[in-house]
Amino acid sequence: MKKILKKHILMVGAFVLILAACKRDSDYVMSTPSPYISNLDLRKLYKGKDVVLTKNVTREATVVKGQVTSDHSGNNLPAGLLFIQNLRMVGSGIDSLRGIAINIGAAAASYKPGDSVHVIIEGSVLKRVNGILQIADVPASNVTKVASNIKPFVTPISAVSMLAKPENFEGCFGVIYNCNFEPNIGVETIEGVKTLNEGSGDMQMNINATAGFKSELLPWSANVQGIVIPSASTGVPQIWPRVKEDFIATSIVVDPNIPLGPNPAIITGYFANPSGTDANYEYIQFMATQDLDFRQKPFSVYTTNNAGASTPTGLPMNGWNTGGLRTYKFNLTKGTVAKGKFFYVGGYKQISGVTSTDISQANWVVSKLYNDNDGDDGIGDKTANLLANSGNAAGVAIFKTTTVGLTTEPSDVIFFAGGGTIYGSGVGYSITTNDFYKPMNGSTAQPFYTQGTNTSKFAVPVDSEFSYLGGVYSIGTKTWTTKRAHKTLPVPKAALLPVIEEMPGVTKITN
Questions:
Q1: Quick check: do 39-147 and 155-249 share a fold?
Q2: Which conformational region is residue 488 in: left (phi greater than 0), alpha (psi within -120 to 50 degrees), or beta?
Q3: What is the pLDDT of residues 255-264, one digit of tens each?
Q4: What is the pLDDT of residues 357-402, one digit of tens each?
């Protein structure tokens, strides 16, 4: 009897649990869809054909809100288009900042950068006109300004990032640092479509014939900001400066008759072991000891990786030109650097690896994805480790020429970590006279690293830390009056450029 009773009690209990698990309609949380839609989601709606923005299409959203970035006072933007940008929180570090154009007619000129607006878009049409994705058929009365004087977000732009994902940049307010042009100096103006290179590849700048600043002369280099707009004829993304102040010349004039000294550029630091992947995120920091114009006098930078798996194995028969996975070459043929200023060569313009701060505002003479591209002049295979951290010897050399032979002396050279097959039988990595090496020891020639007394090396790089060398270089005596020493400092993902340029003990030059 007890067993039967126990069985019935269990059955009743299970039935109660089942009933409890069955929610009624009134148990669900009622919610109202947001009336706002982001540019990120708006742009996803366009699939190559016009889209009427009904509530059914936008999931009940009727309004887009954002920061105004357009400025029509310079007469260089497409008439009638109000450009706004916004972002939404999507988590996981995903970039959601997007721009879009809204055609409201002549009223677009009455809005200024920094205005915050709400725009009713219900019933309007998402379409491409003259290559520009825009929201058309929007009455000016649908726009409400809710705030002003808000500092707009500015997106740093490089060729390697924008040309890979142009959709992410279209309509955004961006800045390109260290734009290098090839102008007819003193004659050519900025009007028209101009090709520029910021160290990672070619891009275009557009200045219309209607622009109030079209007669400005085109310099060797400039910082350019503006709206990213596709070309109507080719679809290639271009940066359109809005006003004269968006185009700032940065090049210095270097007298080509001034000869290069023995050490016109010196090595001041390097980031050899970023957290996560090393591929395309390593870089080297240099300083100019005199004004340099790499168009007039090209330089080259080499790195060497002598890890056990690096090929070709054995002695580096061609020195810095050995290539393969042993050496990698960058040619420096554009850009200027003022005396005492830093400049950079490496991969992505990010301070501490993947998802870290963009430092495009630094002077990147070359930004090359070495994991995706062979070295210049065929010297160096694609590599995930430009700067080795295997324990075997690795190094950096900068030459004041692109034509480097077995015994050509660098402007500067350093090595770090351990040993490996480095020198023998009259071949190796050439060195120069600096604070660690000398090609002559008395009357004895020792032109290669590890030959004779040339054995100094820095410590193995520390994970996620920038290696800075310090020291004081005298321009007057062409010598290091304070010897460099390897020091490191942590570089968090959110670190800013001054972390690697303004630390105590930073490299200095004296006259």
A1: yes
A2: beta
A3: 999 999 999 9
A4: 999 999 999 999 999 999 999 999 999 999 988 778 999 999 999 9
Task: Tell me how long the chain is.
Answer: 511
Q: How far is CA 457 from CA 278, 394, 467, 483, in A?
A: 22, 9, 13, 13
Q: Count CA within 13 A, CB hemisphere, residue 474.
A: 9
* Contacts of residue 31, Cβ cutoff 8 Å, sequence gap at least 6: none
**CATH class assigned to 252-511:** mainly beta
- What is each CA distance from 163 to 79, 159, 170, 230, 388, in whole angstroms? 26, 6, 11, 11, 29
Q: What is the pLDDT of residue 125?
A: 98
The mean per-residue pLDDT over the stretch 69-94 comes to: 89
Q: Map residue 250 onto helix, strand or coil.
A: coil
Per-domain boundaries in the chain: 39-147, 155-249, 252-511
Q: In this structure, what is the dihedral angle of CA atoms 104, 105, 110, 111, given to the nearest 10 degrees? A: 30
Neighbours of 209 (CB within 10 A): 9
Nearest to 134 by CA among 87, 88, 106, 170: 170
This prediction has a pTM of 0.88
Residue 431, pLDDT > 50, answer yes
Residue 349 vs residues 204, 224, 269, 369, 498: alpha-carbon distances, Å: 19, 17, 15, 10, 14
CA distance 353 to 247: 30
CATH class of 155-249: mainly beta
Structure tokens at 370: 């070495």
% the chain with pLDDT above 90 = 88
State the CB neighbour count (10 A cutoff) for residue 342.
18
4: pLDDT confidence band, cut at 50, 70 and 90? very low
Each residue's pLDDT tens digit, 99-147:
999 999 999 999 999 999 999 999 999 999 999 999 999 999 999 999 9
Of 90, 34, 99, 21, which Cα lies nearest the Cα of 66?
99
- Phi–psi pair at 444, nearest 5 degrees: -100, 125
Homologous superfamily (CATH) of 39-147 is: Nucleic acid-binding proteins (2.40.50.140)
